């Protein structure tokens, strides 16, 4: 399913509050990226606001944290919609964005996003705190996220971590930006793993962080838009790839649909929802991802937001944000119904 007739708008028009927040995020993150490939975490702590879980229901959702592996500080936050305690609910495993370098489940924006998913779908939502680059390089992030799935597949862990109405046989992997990259690759690995109590039946990739060696039109034309730029994404890819390897943006973990892409034609990859935006410099890579899935014979749906930028959906004041949550709800409901048949 593909929206037609997208015209490139002449300018990015957002409410002043949204533009101000995007500007602060962009400026702060750029200031923390050092030329030597390290991140000034001490500087970031000056702006680092974190929110605690709420054992009591707040706006219809309670939350708690679960530790998977204290040695690598791997944990996730669980969001439970209190008004649906007697319903069989799908499980959303959410991977946050931040270029593999920034953010976490307990930053206000992602805490709010996951609460909204839990409340509006409704679903039991798990938001994973994976290790960050450059201190921890690939495959640390992907290993962490996959290990959370293996943790949940253990009956004792599942009973201690999730409410009784969480249905792990209706599991969706959802992520934005770097989290969208994780959602794809972790799903690919899950398709080839013999889980006993968990089944990934759908993927939601919101503006996934992909790239490649050859510059695309959107990368060059939109290099000055908020959050994403050539300079920033190149820095992040270099910080992400393992030391000692030749820097190659056509690495299959980056260019998922490129010349070194994994052949998924014979893999039962689940239905996938891909979200792209007109003012996202990564737009062309995301569109290629959609086309690659379609050409590989997979069930895939494309949703385009021509007047939005990268990470637009975290701003609840935007009508497009509300629209996206509704579309995710429809996708999860549709895939769940088809799976239950």
UniProtKB/TrEMBL annotation:
Q: Which InterPro entries match?
A: AB_hydrolase_3 (IPR013094), AB_hydrolase_fold (IPR029058), Carboxylest/Gibb_receptor (IPR050466)
Q: What's the protein called, per UniProt?
A: Alpha/beta hydrolase fold-3 domain-containing protein
Molecular functions (GO terms): hydrolase activity
- Name the protein family: Belongs to the 'GDXG' lipolytic enzyme family.
List the coiled-coil residues.
none
Q: Which parts of the sequence belong to the Alpha/beta hydrolase fold-3 domain?
A: 92-313
Which Pfam families does the annotation name?
Abhydrolase_3 (PF07859)
Query: What is the originating organism of this protein?
Result: Mikania micrantha
């Amino acid at each position: 399913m593909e929206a037609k007739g997208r015209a490139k708008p002449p300018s990015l028009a957002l409410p002043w509050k949204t533009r101000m927040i995007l500007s602060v995020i962009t400026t702060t993150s750029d200031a923390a990226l050092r030329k030597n490939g390290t991140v000034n975490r001490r500087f970031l702590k000056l702006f680092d606001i974190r929110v605690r879980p709420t054992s009591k229901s707040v706006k219809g959702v309670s939350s708690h944290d679960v530790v998977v592996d204290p040695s690598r500080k791997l944990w996730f936050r669980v969001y439970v919609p209190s008004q649906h305690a007697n319903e069989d609910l799908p499980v959303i495993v959410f991977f946050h964005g931040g270029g593999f370098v920034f953010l976490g489940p307990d930053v206000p924006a992602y805490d709010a996003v996951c609460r909204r998913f839990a409340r509006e779908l409704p679903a039991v939502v798990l938001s994973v705190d994976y290790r960050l680059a450059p201190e921890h390089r690939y495959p640390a992030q992907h290993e962490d996220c996959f290990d959370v799935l293996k943790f949940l597949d253990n009956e004792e862990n599942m009973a201690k971590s999730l409410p009784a109405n969480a249905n792990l046989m209706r599991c969706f992997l959802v992520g934005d930006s770097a989290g969208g990259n994780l959602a794809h690759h972790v799903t690919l690995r899950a398709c080839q793993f013999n889980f006993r109590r968990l089944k990934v039946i759908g993927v939601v990739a919101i503006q996934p962080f992909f790239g490649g060696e050859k510059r695309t039109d959107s990368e060059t034309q939109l290099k000055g838009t908020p959050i994403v730029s050539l300079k920033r994404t190149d820095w992040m890819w270099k910080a992400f790839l393992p030391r000692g390897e030749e820097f190659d943006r056509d690495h299959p973990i980056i260019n998922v649909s490129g010349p070194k892409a994994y052949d998924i034609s014979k893999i039962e990859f689940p239905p996938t929802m891909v979200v792209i935006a007109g003012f996202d410099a990564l737009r062309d890579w995301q569109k290629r991802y959609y086309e690659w899935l379609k050409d590989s014979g997979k069930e895939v749906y494309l949703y385009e937001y021509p007047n939005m930028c990268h990470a637009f959906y975290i701003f609840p004041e935007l009508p497009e944000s509300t629209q996206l949550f509704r579309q995710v709800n429809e996708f999860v409901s549709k895939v769940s119904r088809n799976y239950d048949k």
